[in-house]
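Page 37, top half.
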Amino acid sequence: MKVLTVNLGTTTPSEHTDAEGGTGIDKRPTNGPVAVTAPGPKGVGGSGLAGDAVVDLRHHGGDDQAVYAYAREDLDDWERALGRTLPNGCFGENLTTSGIEITSARIGERWRIGPRLLLEVSCPRIPCRTFQGWLGEHGWLRRFTRAGVPGAYLRVIEAGEIRGGDTVERVHRPDHEVTIGLMFRALTTQRELLPRLLEAGPALPDEARRRTLKYLEANGS
């Protein structure tokens, strides 16, 4: 398991976002080590990677979305499905990985990358209008959601540096069954799965916990 490329974005204008100031979704592979730290709470902190732009702090960034990873294997599947080339970083991911089944990663599992950096799987990516506009694919939000291969956001447990080619070691895998794929379905197309998210315990992000408790209250559970 390894990181193929580390991808950073700069702020660019976009007609496909409601955020003032543009978007940072256009991420490109970078050479050399990149410092990774916990950015702070959502609404205040942006990306966990130094030099990576996050513009819409209300909806993106923060500790639970510090780093976004997407598997090269899944990009390859999308290349075949869409009939177009998808370079590393084109989904707005910070890390393009190889050998990691990200959709089956469990909430709270931890990855050691390099000698110091420790990341923890936090939650799936929920697609937005900016993502659809950036790719320019008609009906993309529905198609991406239906596929159920969202990639994973990670929080920074121990700060460090990262670079393309770094190996990834899974050093902790929780004994629950709340995966990125299950959580994505619960938050999008199968809300009846929401109660299962609580099995992830303290690793479950606050936003998802609030949505789950609201669902339980509304359904008399």
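Page 37, bottom half:
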Amino acid sequence: MTLAQLRSHAPLLAAAIALTACSAAGSSSVPTRTSDAKPALVVELYQSQGCSSCPPAIANVNAIADRPDVLALTFAVTYWDRLGWKDTFGDPAFTDRQRRYAVAGGRPGVFTPQVIVNGRTSIVGGRRAELDAALGSTPRLTGGPAIAANGSGVIVAAGPRTATPATVWLVRYDPRTLRVAIGRGENGGRKIDHRNVVRQLIRLGSWNGSATRFSVERAVPKGLAGAILVQDGANGPILAAHRV
């Protein structure tokens, strides 16, 4: 590695050294998580603009999107596109993620609007009282591995091993409020405001408990924010999250 390369990686290398030192000292020495960078609750909403039951759930998740302890992510699925309106943010990869959650949770199928909290708790997203209860009862992300990131890479520090290798995801989402006029289908004529719409879900690799560095090769599309999720298996409980 050249001197110029060392300089370019210096911030991430410094973070790696700090994370490794903390991990070697034991879990009690992991740096204190700040609510801004390291949310305690990851809220995944699976919805479709073509589903008449989804607008209340979208509004519920929009209402908690600014909470510093919450990372709210809106995933647009594609299986309701046949109802006459193709979701403008839909992606088959998001439909596949929801279906894998159903398999992991032993559920017979998928539905909208569904909210999944920390990869553990599944509820009907349109019921605000149920959402608030899930946010209060789901175990918070307090014992997972520390994460450091910059534009070129991510380091997940050493931590307790899981029964299966964990998956490290890069999620890129639009933090703005996006208003969509629905032209047809069950919500035809309505305008729906979306928050934190996921545009990319990228699998960076696996983590087995040892400090591991992952390269981030894709350029960040303009206007998007990002987050790293460390998840038991592919769709088990989320172990740690970090905004980047």
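Margin note: Residues 3-25 form the longest helix (23 residues).
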